[in-house]
Amino acid sequence: MILDRINQPNDIKNIPEEQLPELADEIRSFLIEKISRSGGHLASNLGAVELTMALHLAFTLPQDRLIWDVGHQSYTHKILTGRKEGFDTLRRYGGLSGFPKRSESDCDVFDTGHSSTSISAGLGMARARDLTGGTWSVVSIIGDGSFTGGMVYEALNNAFGMKTNFIIVLNDNGMSISENVGGFASYLSSLRTSEAYTGLKKAAEDTLRQLPGGGENMISRIRGVKQNLKAMLIPGAFFEQLGITYFGPVDGSNISRMVTVFRNAKKVRGPVVVHVITHKGKGYVPAERLPARFHGTGPFDIETGLASVKKEKADWSDIFSTVMCKEGKKVDNLIAVTAAMPDGTGLRRFRSMYPDRFFDVGIAEEHAVTFCAGLAAGGMIPVFAVYSSFLQRGFDQIVHDVCLQNLHVVFAIDRAGLVGADGETHQGIFDLSYLSLIPNMTILAPKNKWELADMLRWAIHTWEGPAAIRYPRGTAYDGLKEFRAPVEYGRWEILYDESDICLLAAGSMVQTGYEVREMLKKNGANCTLINCRFVKPLDEEVLAAAAREHLLLVTLEENVISGGFGQSVVSYLKQTGCDVEVELIALEDEYIEEGCVSELKEETGIGEESIFRRIQTRMIGLIL
Ligand SMILES: Cc1ncc(C[n+]2csc(CCOP(=O)(O)OP(=O)(O)O)c2C)c(N)n1
What we know:
Distance between the termini: 67 Å
Number of helices: 24
Mean pLDDT: 94
CATH architecture of the largest domain: 3-Layer(aba) Sandwich
Helix content: 40-55%
CATH topology of the largest domain: Rossmann fold
Low-confidence stretches: 196-201, 224-228
CATH superfamily of the largest domain: Thiamin diphosphate (ThDP)-binding fold, Pyr/PP domains
Strand content: 15-25%
Bound molecules: thiamine diphosphate
Strand order of the largest sheet: 7-6-8-9-11-10-15
Shape: globular
Number of strands: 17
């Protein structure tokens, strides 16, 4: 195996050129084999194998800096920098991260996970290099999908007039997770076919030349027009106009060609874009056919491409999807908005049923929020379906464009809480905090799948201001079916009414609270369980009564402690002079790495066992 000779950074430089295609094949088989077991980002990585090899041949690590946008496509980079063995623990707790991590290797120079940051980061590093007299290369590698994010344009604008080298590799596979959208995607597709333009131009000139008499004359007149046309159509005009040298398009399967172009790009003074055409899923037929399905995948059978674990029950996004489709029929101004996640959020069905009322705005969460504000101001009812961690991008827009004007925008916040294998960048653990502090915002969290449906209908039909409904990743909870009180603004639901201990649980933690209560009861305790389905506003009446009637209140949330549900409860109790013991179960003030969700819950102290032990200790302290 040639791969056996790759054990540390730059080992690839010792592989003879004629063996590189074989190495690419071996890396592909390695990726397919490992990801089929661990799950992970397959299609993007398969597409970027040769590109990554060429980068490692043209540049020297760790001196030169490679910055991977999003970072989900950095697996080959990890293999080439001595982390092959780590793939047996990929995305597991304490294992190899699925994204670049500075703490993991000095060849990872910038942590990523969210899209469209690499050009800003790279530009910053290039400026820092210049200020410190360095001579290394700084290379940002960014996909065409990530080019739909606004930060990219802020960075390109800022790179204008730069006098030293900074390389941007545009890894264009024509896809975001799903098909790429918008004007820039269409511009890129025109660049991909720019050879067709060159051929067409020559054919037109030849034809004109054959015209009797005026042929040459006409050609020169047309050439004038052509200069203008050229500005629009020659490859890279968009970049050139911004003062960025454009190389491309380059075939992303041709390693030696890419190496030559990268070496040339190093010589350019100023920013340069190398536009590389790659193929998502390359070399594995199921991933080539279904690149979106294999963008991020769970374990699968290599032979068939089918998921190893069959989904038996609906997940939260499915429930959301079903309700949206049903309500779309009744409410003709209901609009669904996604920022490049039609599949993950479950909006694909809505799109096929109501194409005119569905908008994929690209990886542009900030824009999506203000776009929704505009839709609402124009009389529509927009529902923005978005992952909790990505909505962080739209914070100011929620404050300034939605809540200030009290506009009726519904935020369907998916993947709220711990998400597992994607790690720090993707955990949805801040939304209760960053939304709670915004005036006019109403925050709901369902205990089970029926409540999600009820809340979504309430937010669409009854409520007239901003509302955020947060729900977790994975299978929708179908327990506690017997409890289904109509959704009323700011009202909690008392599930079990006893004495001594009162569990105040929000969203996903109601299920946990239920299990904890069972454990407490087995140990002879009395325990109330309240479904705090409105995280904002709090149900002050129920809370005040709970404080009067129990020895210990325990708040439970899948969110960081700072500014979260528990602290809102404590703040209310303090303000109103309620004297009761309170235990806050929430995530500590820290980032949480990858791992499976149940394991992470126990590790972080919000799992059933840990909560049970904490309550027991606290009660012993109170009684003694
Ligand atoms: C801010 C943000 N929103 C959404 C995502 C989810 N996401 C991860 S990769 C991706 C598509 C990226 O497309 P592209 O840059 O073309 O890379 P490819 O996977 O096609 O190689 C999206 C939408 C994200 N990582 N960050």
